[in-house]
Design brief:
Layout: H1 2-11, H2 13-31, H3 37-44, H4 48-60, E1 64-67, E2 70-73, H5 75-91, H6 94-105, E3 109-113, H7 122-138, E4 144-147, H8 151-159, E5 170-173, H9 186-196, E6 200-201, H10 212-219, H11 222-231, E7 236-240, E8 242-243, H12 244-250, H13 255-263, E9 268-270, E10 273-275, E11 281-284, H14 292-297, E12 300-304, H15 311-320, E13 324-329, H16 330-339
Length: 340
């Protein structure tokens, strides 16, 4: 395919340009429900005249629907978009970048989406869709799926499709709650995914950060203990990765502890652990849920994280888990190339 693309670039560059433009338009319509032509023009930095012409073409090809409220992609368009992705990744150099980052990090697999989540929040939706697509390739009947919380994880949960393809699926939160935002807590995300996969889900009704005395007491509760046993036996873990400073603020960490972890070079956080760039633990919170030794033992782990700001956090987690599957974006990937 690569050789064919190189020939096309030399002989018919205008064909690739048109294909890329229409791919971007289709993708943007798929990410935005009922988007209007003017909004589409602004998002893609194309003239309204060009957008109008391309939209008319896509409509004639029965790839989109046009309503008074705006445009939406139909099933034909979604199928074509999925088929085009591999080809467009080659054109945009995404496939080459994926292989480059995989080698630099020394991990199992890297999936990269165009853009930078720091500049465009819709990139997170693309990451969510790609994560769901990969998950459906490895999930099996009777699997236990563990999930963490966070905005990126919520976007992934919302991107999952309702299906009854799998039997006896159980989804569990990998840890307790964090903060007051119920929507992005792992309990809520586990419930959303469990329902969409037509399976069951368990909840972990405990705070994420508690004293050791309270922690030991809660573990003895039968229902909590049962959920913790499920967590220790997950077949697939889907988790988000945070920046150390951002997560410390969300947890309302004491200023003295914050200064300590920053002085020790903390760059990333996952499962209540704060890591430096070499993947060394700088600080550990008292948390109920998955432990680092459990994380290292899980066969299928999918880390989803977007934005160049989180590049160092990705470096940290990749040091800990070499059979990791990473779903990220160009912004993070390019920053990783700068850092290594």
């Amino acid at each position: 395919m690569k050789k064919l693309i190189q020939i096309q670039k030399k002989i018919m560059p205008e064909v690739l340009d048109v294909m890329y433009r229409r791919y971007k338009i289709l993708n943007q319509i798929s990410l935005n429900e009922s988007i209007g032509r003017r909004s589409l023009s602004n998002k893609l930095d194309l003239s309204e005249r060009v957008v109008r012409s391309e939209v008319e073409f896509l409509k004639k090809q029965d790839l989109i629907e046009i309503y008074t409220s705006g445009m939406s992609i139909n099933e034909n368009g979604l199928n074509l978009l999925n088929d085009l992705k591999v080809f467009m990744d080659e054109i945009m150099g995404i496939s080459e970048l994926e292989e480059k980052i995989k080698k630099k990090l020394g991990i199992k697999k890297v999936i990269i989406l165009p853009g930078n989540a720091d500049d465009d929040s819709l990139v997170i939706k693309d990451i969510g869709k790609a994560t769901y697509k990969y998950l459906t390739k490895i999930i099996k009947n009777d699997y236990i799926i563990g999930v963490t919380g966070g905005n990126t994880m919520l976007e992934f949960a919302n991107c999952c499709h309702e299906t009854k393809k799998y039997e006896n699926i159980l989804v569990v939160p990998a840890r307790g709650g964090l903060g007051k935002e119920v929507e992005i807590q792992s309990n809520n995300i586990a419930a959303i995914i469990g329902k969409k996969f037509g399976g069951n889900y368990k909840l972990l009704h405990v705070p994420d950060n508690v004293t050791e005395e309270t922690l030991n007491s809660l573990i003895l509760e039968p229902e909590i203990n049962k959920t913790l046993n499920h967590i220790q036996n997950v077949d697939i873990l889907v988790f988000g990765v945070g920046r150390a400073d951002d997560m410390a603020r969300r947890r309302k960490m004491l200023d003295s502890d914050y200064q300590y972890i920053m002085s020790k070079g903390a760059v990333g956080e996952a499962f209540g652990y704060y890591f430096n760039r070499d993947g060394e633990i700088i600080y550990e919170t008292s948390t109920i849920g998955i432990k680092l030794e459990n994380f290292k033992a899980i066969k299928n782990t999918i880390g989803i994280v977007g934005g160049s700001r989180k590049a160092e956090a990705i470096l940290a987690i990749s040091k800990i888990k070499k059979d990791l599957v990473l779903v990220t974006d160009e912004g993070a990937a390019n920053k990783i190339c700068e850092l290594i």
